[in-house]
Amino acid sequence: xxxxxxxxxxxxxxxxxxxxxxxxxxxxxxxxxxxxxxxxxxxxxxxxxxxxxxxxxxxxxxxxxxxxxxxxxxxxxxxxxxxxxxxxxxxxxxxxxxxxxxxxxxxxxxxxxxxxxxxxxxxxxxxxxxxxxxxxxxxxxxxxxxxxxxxxxxxxxxxxxxxxxxxxxxxxxxxxxxxxxxxxxxxxxxxxxxxxxxxxxxxxxxxxxxxxxxxxxxxxxxxxxxxxxxxxxxxxxxxxxxxxxxxxxxxxxxxxxxxxxxxxxxxxxxxxxxxxxxxxxxx
Length: 283
Known about the structure:
It is built from six helices and 14 strands. It has a domain at 18-179 and 204-231: Rossmann fold, CATH 3.40.50. By secondary structure, the chain is an alpha/beta fold. A seven-stranded parallel β-sheet has the order 3-2-1-4-5-6-11, with helices on both faces. A three-stranded antiparallel β-sheet has the order 12-9-14. A two-stranded parallel ribbon has the order 7-10. Helix 1 (26-37) packs across helix 5 (206-218) and helix 2 packs parallel to helix 3. The protein is globular and about 55 Å long.
């Protein structure tokens, strides 16, 4: 069950904030809706018009972080969630989204002397290169083995240098409403089990990830780095078989060889230990 962020600012004596959600997409928009529900003010940034109407209490800035020379930012932002995602899986798109856009926003906030208190960057567990099957936590070394992870590590370094209290929230594979790619692959007969490498899925529901981000914003002393995953890493083959059984289908066939050129946040040869400082991760 998705976690309740438990963040009613009025009932718990928490100072109400004005949050900026850079990247009003799948995760950012849900985090924004939770913040509004808790009584906070929310401003979102998005390049295009959203597909659904905005929740009451949300202001949207429709702009491109890279091309807009004068970002029209409110002058009283206290919290920032940077949840921008790359629109293509290329080195150029990753750098534009995670490094250049990040720097552009940080520069605008700094130049306007906006009183930011917390800056939370949504990163990925793909920064961990370990392949020995052992548990991984925030103290484990990271390595840019591929352009995706290398870019995220660079972005985390940018975040750590910003003049605010900063958090890198490393999310596992985010699933939830509307994300049915794995189910569709099983249903269509395209899914395959693989014998090597053994892939462990580290996942988190969108609602839990959003609740964890908000918990980190409210935390009296948040860690600089936090893994956001659920409590049950699972073998990908086992998950495929479970989905097939739920659909009343036979287990997907085996594929003898596979190439894992760039691991996604959800699949890796090692399980991740969720952070112990939050509720959803459990952060």
